[in-house]
Every structure is written in C-alpha cells, then in structure tokens.
Automatic annotation (TrEMBL):
Pfam families: Tweety
MF (Gene Ontology): intracellularly calcium-gated chloride channel activity; volume-sensitive chloride channel activity
First-listed, main subcellular location of the protein, grouped into a coarse class: membrane
UniProt organism field: Spodoptera frugiperda
TM annotation in the entry: 47-69, 89-108, 217-239, 246-272
InterPro entries linked: Tweety (IPR006990)
Stated name of the protein: Protein tweety homolog
Membrane topology reported for the UniProt record: Multi-pass membrane protein
Cellular component terms (Gene Ontology): chloride channel complex; plasma membrane
Lineage of origin: Eukaryota, Metazoa, Ecdysozoa, Arthropoda, Hexapoda
UniProt keyword Transcription regulation present: no
Length: 371
C-alpha cells in the first residue's frame, strides 16, 4: 500500500479543521453539536449565527456611513474646492486595494473552477465504473439465468432417456443438478451486485454538476470583473476630479459593497457547513445525500479504510465460485453425455451453456477490475 507510515485513510484538510473549530452556538449563546446535520433546526440556527457575522459588519459599516452623511448634510459651512483632497487620496488608495482584492478573487474563482473540474472528472470515472458494474452484472445474470433455462431444459429432457449404465447416468444427473443450482446462485449473486446500483445515475448528476459549475464560474468571473471595472472607474474619476462621476460611482460601489457582504454571509455559512461535512464525509453522504445505497457500501467506498470489507466483493466471490462450479459440472456433462445418449439436441444445449459460461467468466473478469 505504499511506503511505511503512508496511509490511504482520509484526513480532513487543515482549512476544514480550522473552520470546523469555530464555535457553533445558538441564540442563547450556548454551544451546540457541530456534527454536520442539515436536517437539524438547531444546527441550521448555529450556521445562521455564524453567517450573520458579515451581515453585522455590513450593518455597522452602513451605520457609520449614515452618520457621516448626516453630519455632511447638516454642515452648511462653505468649504474650499481642495478640502476633499485627502478624501480623494484615501478613495484612490482604497480603490487600488480593492483592485488587488478583486485580482485575488479572480484567481481564487479560477482555482476553484479547476478543482471542481478535477472533481467532476473523477466523478465521471466513478460513473463509468458504476456503469461497468451494472452492465457486466446484467450480462452475468442473463448468461446464468434467462439464457441458460432453455439449454438446461433440453439437457434435462435428453437425460430422461432410458440407459443401461445407471452409474454413469447418476453422475450426469448430479452434474446437471449442480449446474442448475450453481447457475441459479450465480444469477442471484449478479442480481445482488446490480440491484443496489440500479437507481444510481451518476451520469446525469455529473452533467448537472458541470452545468452548475460552468454557470458559477462564469457568474463569478463576471461579478469580479464588474467590481474591478467599478474600482478602476472610481480611481479615474477621483484622478479627474469629476464630482458627478464620483457620486455615481460611489453609489455603485456602495451597492457592490452590500452585495459582497451579503454574499460573504452566505459563503461563510456554506464554508462552515462544508467543513463540518468534511470531518466525516462518508457519514455525511451516507445519511444525508439523496441515494438508495446501503450505508455500509457508501462508508466503504468513501472512508478508504482497508480494514473495512467491501460489501460487493462478497457477492462477487459467490458469483465466481458458482461459475467455477458451473464450468466443472459442464465439463462432466460434455464428457459423459455424448457417450451415453444420441439425442440431437444434446450438443446444441451443451454448446449454448458453454458459450454462456464463457460470457459469464468474461463478465466476472470485468467486475473484478471494477470492484
């Protein structure tokens, strides 16, 4: 499994641990359980309180701005044209800083987009594996189930003919019974492999995720670019000393400020919720994601714990043992039945069963690689 000391077990990222460590409190300022629970009103209340921190800062900022505007409205003293030079310089410095922050935001948006594309690519690979398991298990079930019934019936009819060697006939009948039972067991194991994944359609989910991510990336880039354009225009207006442009752009910047802080409140709550889920992602997806998979299967494929047994591997082993037994019983029948009976339907039945067994063996090889 790699070098000594290297483990494949999942470890939460440092940033998620830092966000998860933020205090989760309710309206009475008491600590609440910080386990990811989107269906819990108490947990959602704690996220709302954490998300209200940027909103509270926005309210404080707007209050200070309102007080400043009230003082300016009540100030009737005539001021020289150069009295706001310091304010213009401050505005220009803040515009430059905002442009730098917007540049960081553009980089972060693009970096997140690349990470999401990698996640979607990994999801597409997982969807391909799921489709392989469903398709190959269906092939295995059909080869050992519905397609084997008619040849087995013809073979049973052929063995009903009277013969003198009852010992050889008993051996063939036992082989036929073993073939029938093991074919049924292989078909049942294939159905157990396919049934948990039948309702799982990752292809459609990955397509929706790609559309959502493309819209998020385009909207984020457009928003950051609009904010940068406002800052650059504000900087140019301050340099040209255009009062009308300054007033118009300041109002636009104020609106952008409100939108940014409101978005920051939503993102803060979402980031803390994602950090809480990242502490135990297997449990979060097993209990809260919309799927019909068994919880132990979700835990196995997401926890990366080698000590946990794959719930699908047991069914795969059952199918492999059953197909091996089918091949052995078929070899006994193919060796002894033509010597004992002259039924013209015997060879086609044996050939059909042999072809179906070969197809089942190839399906098992593909399933072994996928699981």
């Amino acid at each position: 499994m790699g070098a000594p000391g290297v483990t494949d077990e999942y470890s939460p990222p440092r940033l998620s641990r830092m966000l998860h460590a933020l205090p989760h409190i309710n309206v009475t300022l008491h600590r609440v359980n910080d386990t990811f629970a989107p269906n819990s009103p108490v947990y959602l209340e704690s996220l709302g309180i954490l998300g209200s921190i940027p909103g509270a800062w926005l309210i404080l900022t707007l209050t200070v701005l309102l007080i400043y505007l009230l003082t300016r409205c009540c100030d009737r003293k005539q001021r020289p044209p150069r009295s706001i030079t310091a304010l213009k310089i401050t505005l220009m410095i803040l515009s430059v800083l905002c442009c730098g922050a917007i540049g960081v935001g553009l980089f972060g948006n693009d970096d997140l987009h690349n990470a999401m594309l990698q996640s979607i690519q990994a999801g597409n690979q997982l969807a391909a594996l799921v489709n392989t398991v469903k398709n190959q298990s269906s092939i295995l079930e059909e080869a050992m189930g519905s397609r084997a019934r008619a040849p087995l019936a013809r073979l049973a009819d052929a063995l009903d003919a009277p013969v003198a060697n009852q010992t050889a006939l008993g051996t063939l009948l036992r082989a036929l019974s073993a073939l029938r039972n093991n074919a049924s067991a292989a078909a049942s194991a294939a159905d157990n492999l396919r049934r948990p994944l039948a309702a799982l359609n990752l292809d459609a989910f990955m397509k929706r995720a790609w559309v959502w991510e493309a819209a998020r990336w385009a909207g984020g880039m457009a928003g950051w670019c609009c904010g940068g354009a406002v800052c650059v225009a504000l900087l140019a207006a301050a340099a040209r000393r255009s009062r009308r442009a300054l007033l118009l752009l300041c109002v636009g910047a104020l609106g952008a400020l409100v939108v940014c802080w409101l978005a920051g409140a939503v993102l803060a709550a979402a980031a803390v919720a994602a950090a809480d889920a990242c502490q135990e992602p297997a449990a979060a997806l097993a209990h809260h994601a919309p799927h019909n998979l068994p919880q132990d299967m979700v835990h196995y494929y997401l926890s990366c714990k080698v000590s946990r047994e794959n719930v699908l591997t047991a069914e795969l082993r059952n199918a492999q043992r059953a197909v091996v037994a089918v091949r052995q019983a078929l070899a006994v029948l193919a060796r002894g039945a033509p010597q004992l009976f002259n039924d013209p339907g015997l060879q086609p039945a044996l050939g059909a069963l042999g072809a179906g067994t070969g197809e089942a063996e190839r399906a098992l090889v593909a399933l072994s690689g996928a699981l």
